Amino acid sequence: MIRLEKRPQPSRAWSLATPLMAVLATMLMGGLLFAALGKPPVEAIRTIFWEPLFGEFAFYYRPQLLVKGAPLVLIAIGLSLGFRAGIWNIGAEGQYIIGALTGAGVGLAFYPMESWIIFPLMILAGAFGGWAWAMIPAVLKTRFGTNEILVSLMLVYVAEQFLASMSLGLMKNPEGFGFPGSRNLQQYDSAHNAELIAGTGMHWGVVAALIAVIFSYVLLNRHMLGYHIRLTGEAPRAARFAGVKPARLVLFCLGASGALAGLAGMFEVSGPSGQVSIDFNVGYGFTAIIVAFLGRLHPVGILLAGGLMALTYIGGDIAQGNLGLPSAAIQVFQGMLLFFLLALDMLTNFRISIGKPEVV
Amino acid sequence: MSTPPLLTLEGLTKAYPGVVANDSVSFAIGEGEVHALLGENGAGKSTLVKMIYGLVKPDSGRMILRGAPYEPAEPRQARADGIAMVFQHFSLFDALNVAENIALGMEKPPALRDLAARIREVSEAYGLPLDPFRTVGDLSAGERQRVEIIRCLLQDPKLLIMDEPTSVLTPQEVEILFETLKKLKSEGTSILYISHKLEEIRTLCDHATILRLGKNVGECTPADTSARDMAELMVGTALKTPERSAKAFGEVALDITGLSVPAPSAFGTALKNVHLAVRRGEILGIGGVAGNGQDELLSVMSGEVTCARDAVKFDGKPIGHMGPTARRGLGVLTAPEERLGHAAAPDMSLTENALLTGSVREGLDNKGFLKWGATRSFAERIIKGFDVRTPGPENAARSLSGGNLQKFVIGREVLQRPEVLVVNQPTWGVDAAAAAAIRQALLDLAANGAAVICISQDLDELMEISDNFAALNEGRLSAPRPTAELTVDEIGLMMGGAHGMEVAHV
């Protein structure tokens, strides 16, 4: 008989090993899934994990890794702060959209003036937009005790309506022949989040993501605020005893995650995407939740997980193109990754023992 | 003994990974005998009775019940053989009434009306007044225990096992319980009585078996043995009684006036017009049955719950509005009762837990940036100074035994040189030697000029260390009185256990 025994304390070795095991298990079960769909499993897995990095067209895909990975990491870092404290911001997608709108809005308002000040202002505006959108669930929670999960999630759909309205109305390109969507910021130098080194995919969003990783690491490991965040997540009553004010923590965590999501949106709209359009958002805000957990809410883990997630996105695209895998199969594949991670996570706190049960 | 014993244990052994809970324990319980099982926490008392009650299977050894081999595979079988048990922690549903709760535990419950009639019958016969239709959520701890006892008595047991039954009772309730137990005994029921309250055992029990580290280390007749001798058998070494030096009290350090706080939750207790003052050098003991506002009173003093500025004063300055951090800055420190999750974060290391309350007074951060080196050495000082048994400060709080973690929690506050220290249940679940060390630390603090408030349900502890005694009852605090002048009866009255009670008419 197989039983689970609680470990006296969490195992460090297992907490490092389980993400790897989850990736391997996903490869195995994903392979079976692809085989069941009548596709060559080894080829499919190889396409997803190998092709973007070392394949024939890697020179094209590698920069894409940074482009896809940066917003994921940036958003996930913000979310992880709240998740550590038991504050669940599920609406990063909405904050991402609003950050893109406010960021792009500032840029478009200055058009066609050229000045070095425009891009920094857009950065501030993007962060502010995301922050302000996240403050709605934060204030409602601290004032009226509403559930931040529901409020932040519902605000995603409100933000999507805003986005549609902006791309069809206020921000529509006056020279766009009636097509929806704003001016292309890639063609407006002062507002363009261009590659810092041509051909690498390295833009300001990547830099911001790396800075966020470092800041979050220092905050969580070296600062009282980070300690209070962790304490609140682990033992809320002990946190109040330690003098933590829960409302302040809610405001900080939701605010920080909103600002980072807003930044991610702003860097995306002014760089890789280029314009405000109805289909601007592609789910980074939701995928970042997976990234945050895949990285065990640890800054360095999130950095690695963001890379891995970007890899499955790009590899999945290639597999769709080359092997004709349905996109739903790729989504299932990504879902498996989270599923296995959460399931194997248990091994950190429990050990499996095989033998006769003890009656207690 | 002339009659053959009811239950004989021979060489019972039970090992868990890493620890032998019972090592070849043998003794016998006679018919109609009240047999005490004595021992410190972790001595193996619980494991032993779980084996008798069929909850745990022994690795080796055997039990003989009335001459026949007895191997209960599960509690149901033990009950069928006439063995009943009242657990220390009650398993009752608050939302159901007494009769419904009792029916839930029965194999084939009779109609509720018939059951209620039987409950009345039994409760009157044994002097345990109880209305079968009252909701359990409204009952006091003593009344809940009656529900559990009556549940057992309805089975007409031959052997009744009671695990620390008096830990939740007021002295008057204890008296009622003892009358009941004596009546049971006179009817021929044997009782296995687990406790570490020695005076109780001396008045009640015919025979005592003492366990230490899983072994039977001695037997005695409690009436003929002094409490001190029994305690030393339990601990294995000579006991050091905490010493107190007579000293005049200083200025009033903490002053609470007219404090009323609504109940924090549906199952909490509101504090009603509480007054107290504690002077430097004084230990104020606050007694009372659990759930009468102890947690709430502590949280008002720790700053977790804030109140009107002037309701709480430290050295004459109003601090009622201040949060925990500001109060720690002034030197008002607290140690709550619940160790895991309140006083300490279970999954965090001892170093991180030392930071939990130590950051202000020990200077463990610099403008918010943490000094892990200093924090670690503070944790090591606590571990060393209070004999916390752990491989090191990097271990998680939950890996420590309850008593060890308690030593850590108390040590963490004592080492911060408090001006006022408020502790709730400071020695709960701690073995006798460590309890004595903790009490000594509290006495030393007071001797060095700190004001100490000790909230406890252990009356012996309060009698031993406190200068003045007050009792909490339903959120009201009685006026403090010098402990030395009080009798146990007066304490019982102060604890408010007197109303609605009567000693069994036997």
TrEMBL record, chain A:
Cellular component aspect of the GO annotation: plasma membrane
CDD domains per record: TM_PBP1_transp_TpRbsC_like (cd06580)
Keywords: Cell membrane, Membrane, Transmembrane, Transmembrane helix
Recorded GO MF terms: transmembrane transporter activity
Cell compartment(s), UniProt: Cell membrane
Predominant location category: membrane
UniProt cross-references to InterPro entries, sorted A to Z: ABC_transp_permease (IPR001851)
Transmembrane segments: 12-37, 69-87, 94-111, 117-140, 149-171, 202-220, 249-267, 328-347
Topology of this chain in the membrane: Multi-pass membrane protein
Protein name: Nucleoside ABC transporter membrane protein
Organism of derivation: Tritonibacter scottomollicae (Epibacterium scottomollicae)
Automatic annotation (TrEMBL), chain B:
Organism: Tritonibacter scottomollicae
Listed name of the protein: Nucleoside ABC transporter ATP-binding protein
SMART domains hit by this protein: AAA
ABC transporter domain location: 7-238, 254-499
Cellular component terms (Gene Ontology): plasma membrane
Molecular functions per Gene Ontology: ATP binding; ATP hydrolysis activity
Keyword vocabulary terms for this entry: ATP-binding, Cell membrane, Membrane, Nucleotide-binding, Repeat, Sugar transport, Translocase, Transport
Membrane topology annotation: Peripheral membrane protein
Chief place of localization: membrane
InterPro entries for the chain: AAA+_ATPase, ABC_carbohydrate_import_ATPase, ABC_transporter-like_ATP-bd, ABC_transporter-like_CS, P-loop_NTPase
Subcellular locations according to the entry: Cell membrane
Origin superkingdom: Bacteria
PROSITE patterns listed in its UniProt record: ABC_TRANSPORTER_1 (PS00211), ABC_TRANSPORTER_2 (PS50893)
Leader peptide range in chain numbering: none
